[in-house]
Design goal:
By secondary structure, the protein is mainly β. The chain is built from no helices and 23 strands. The strands form 2 sheets. Strands 1, 2, 5, 7, 9, 10, 12, 13, 15, 16, 18, 19, 21 and 22 form a 14-stranded mixed β-sheet that branches. It has a 9-stranded mixed β-sheet with strand order 3-4-6-8-11-14-17-20-23, with no helix packed on it. A hairpin with a 2-residue loop joins β1 and β2 (21-25).
Length: 232
């Protein structure tokens, strides 16, 4: 009867934090990407049939967050981002699809959570939390200040993989990096300070192919590396 084609010329969305407000450029608003902004709290709901949408995050806020629900894998580009959320994760990925995190070259990125998280029916147990795979690329830097009571610095309910970049977990009350299905490091530089286990591969493996990797346990009776499978 008829055929309609949606031609996507730009699959990059720009989100810039400006203190208590946020500037958003969303060319995919009519294709299934809804972005709600309240103060500096940003919630993305993507039902778009487009893989690898780019979300470019930049700017600074002392009371905000970035939260996303996505039906397909996507990319987060941290381009000079500094988010503090006093009552929850700074980054909260409520999608079990792979998120590729690009630490843009030459940029410094900082994520900080609060000591007490607001009640939620969703899992959100880290300053940088994801339900799906987290894959870090890019030559920029990321510092995570984990202050949340009994919360992790970086956590994925799937796997955490570091390929590039300088990642520093300056503090974590629980695990520094927790990958429920494992942790893999192929490159980059990682430094972790935590009161819990420094790297917890949980039900999966830990594979270190390249470094440097510096782990600092700051409490008694915790592990530098721990998993229920193999450590290579």
């Amino acid at each position: 009867d008829s055929i309609t084609f949606d031609v996507v010329t730009d699959s990059t969305i720009y989100i810039d934090y400006q203190g208590s407000t946020v500037s958003v450029i969303n060319p995919l608003a009519d294709l299934g990407v809804e972005i709600a902004v309240s103060g500096a709290d940003v919630t993305v709901v993507s039902t778009a049939t487009i893989k690898d949408i780019n979300y470019v995050l930049s700017g600074t806020t002392s009371e905000g967050f970035f939260k996303i629900y996505s039906d397909l894998r996507f990319n987060l580009l941290m381009n000079g981002l500094n988010i503090t959320n006093n009552d929850g994760p700074a980054i909260n990925i409520q999608s079990n699809k792979k998120a590729r995190v690009n630490l843009v070259a030459g940029t410094i990125n900082i994520l900080t959570d609060g000591e007490t998280y607001a009640a939620s029916s969703e899992d959100q147990s880290a300053a940088f939390f994801s339900e799906g795979d987290l894959v870090f690329i890019g030559s920029g830097s990321l510092t995570v200040n984990g202050f949340g009571d009994d919360q992790n610095g970086i956590r994925s309910d799937d796997e955490v993989e570091v390929n590039e970049g300088t990642i520093t977990i300056a503090s974590a009350v629980k695990d520094g990096i927790h990958g429920k299905n494992g942790f893999r490091m192929n490159g980059g530089e990682v430094t972790i300070n935590s009161q819990g286990d420094v790297i917890d591969g949980s039900e999966g493996h830990i594979v270190i192919n390249n470094g440097p990797l510096v782990v600092n346990s700051t409490a008694d009776d915790v592990k530098a590396m721990k998993c229920d499978s193999t450590i290579t």
